[in-house]
Amino acid sequence: MGEDELALLNQSINEFGDKFRNRLDDNHSQVLGLRDAFKDSMKAFSEKMSLKLKEEERMTEMILEYKNQLCKQNKLIQEKKENVLKMIAEVKGKEQESEELTAKIQELKEEYARKRETISTANKANEERLKGLQKSADLYRDYLGLEIRKIHGNKLQFIFTSIDPKN
C-alpha cells in the first residue's frame, strides 16, 4: 500500500499541479486581459484627457482673449468716460459763462434804460429850455426888434431893427 498511496499522492499532487497551472494560466490570462483592458482604458483615458487638456487650453486662450478684449473695452470706456466728463465740464463752463453773459446783458440793458431815461429827461429839459429861449427870442424880435445872429468863431451878433430915434 505504500506504493498505491504514493501513486495516489503523486496523482493527487499532479492533479493539484494541473489545477494550479490551469488556474495560474487562467489567472495569467485574466491578468493579461485586465492588463490589456487597463492599457485600452488608459489609452482612452489619455486620449480623453488630451482632448480635455486641449479644450482647456483653448478655453484658457479664449478666456485670455476675452480678458484682453475686456481690458481694451474698459480702457475705451474709461477714455470715453473721461471725454464725457471733460465735455460735461466744458458744458457747465459754457452754461456758467452764458449765465454770466446773460447777467451782464441784463445789467447793460438796465444801464442803457437808465441812461436813456436820463437822456430823455435831459432832452425834455432842453426842449423846455429851448421853448423858453425861443419864446424869449420871439419876444425880443417882435417887441424890441432885436435879432440875434450867429457869426463865425462862435460869436453872436445883435442887430436892433426897431430903433426909435426919439428914444
UniProtKB/TrEMBL annotation:
One GO cellular component, as annotated: Ndc80 complex
Keywords in alphabetical order: Coiled coil
Gene Ontology BP terms: chromosome segregation
Coiled coil: 77-125
Taxonomic source organism: Mus musculus (Mouse)
Top-level lineage group: Eukaryota
UniProt-listed InterPro entries: Spc25
Organism phylogeny: Eukaryota, Metazoa, Chordata, Craniata, Vertebrata
Name the UniProt record assigns to this protein: SPC25, NDC80 kinetochore complex component, homolog (S. cerevisiae)
